[in-house]
């Protein structure tokens, strides 16, 4: 059994994650060029023609700019909620997508790819109908959780019992405050419908930790308002407060912005 995640790109400049559950192979978002996706998959010896589909979290361009291209190239179905589809179509964000590749999903309603169960869940973000995803396969669970202005109890409960999590560590609050962004943009990032900051994400991670949680990938880092070391240190400190030691109790990796992050198996 092989069940793993592999971020192909992660950050405000573009997001794309590869999910592998034996024969069931999916991309979550394609916010990078088609070329980058093909190259990334080749690096880990995955033939793009074996993909089964593309899951969309939300319609921001750092998540969908390559979706249309990849769908057309490999004839792949695209899964998104109805409001997200409507927005992508009315704004012509994907180019032409064949009708048989337009698939509608609903929050909290699992979809199945063979034995792989995928559950979209609701998150807080300034797009029409954003979702995160829970992946369950052969008794193992992985979670994708990015683009979240805040988390509530219902969301955090999704993370319980995960064997691996890709969690947003978007920004350092101080860097946003003293940074050069115009005030409205600062407000957006820091608001409840923006992005998760290091400190809060670290708290969430320490809170959901259990001995079977094997790894956490810190993802979707801001280019302007974060540093990989800051994200890592936030996680390290929050975990240490609960006597959880990185390397011993949990593997923590900061996702690469432009390049492949190593495969993370559960
Ligand atoms: Zn977004
Ligand atoms: Zn994003």
Automatic annotation (TrEMBL):
InterPro entries: Metallo-B-lactamas, RibonucZ/Hydroxyglut_hydro, WalJ/YycJ-like. Residues 13-193 form the Metallo-beta-lactamase domain. It comes from the Bacteria. Pfam families: Lactamase_B_2 (PF12706). This is MBL fold metallo-hydrolase.
């Amino acid at each position: 059994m092989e069940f793993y995640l592999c971020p192909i790109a992660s950050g405000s400049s573009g997001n794309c994650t590869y999910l592998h559950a034996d024969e069931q192979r999916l991309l979550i978002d394609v916010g990078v060029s088609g070329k980058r996706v093909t190259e990334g998959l080749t690096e880990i010896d995955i033939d793009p023609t074996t993909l089964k589909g593309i899951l969309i979290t939300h319609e921001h361009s750092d998540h969908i700019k390559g979706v249309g291209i990849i769908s057309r190239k490999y004839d792949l179905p695209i899964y998104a909620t109805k409001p997200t589809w409507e927005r992508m179509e009315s704004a012509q964000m994907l180019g032409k997508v064949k009708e048989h590749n337009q698939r509608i999903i609903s929050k909290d309603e699992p979809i199945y790819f063979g034995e792989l169960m995928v559950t979209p869940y609701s998150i807080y973000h300034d797009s029409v109908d954003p979702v995160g995803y829970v992946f369950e396969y052969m008794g193992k669970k992985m979670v994708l959780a990015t683009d979240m202005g805040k988390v509530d109890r219902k969301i955090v409960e999704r993370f319980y019992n995960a064997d691996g999590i890709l969690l947003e560590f978007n920004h350092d609050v101080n860097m946003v405050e003293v940074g050069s962004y115009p005030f409205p943009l600062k407000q957006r990032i820091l608001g409840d419908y923006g992005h998760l900051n290091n400190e809060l994400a670290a708290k969430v991670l320490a809170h959901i930790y259990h001995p079977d949680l094997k790894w956490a990938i810190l993802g979707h880092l801001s280019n302007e308002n974060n540093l990989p070391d800051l994200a890592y240190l936030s996680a390290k400190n929050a975990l240490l407060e609960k006597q959880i030691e990185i390397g011993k109790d949990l593997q923590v990796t900061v996702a690469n912005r432009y390049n492949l992050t190593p495969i993370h198996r559960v």
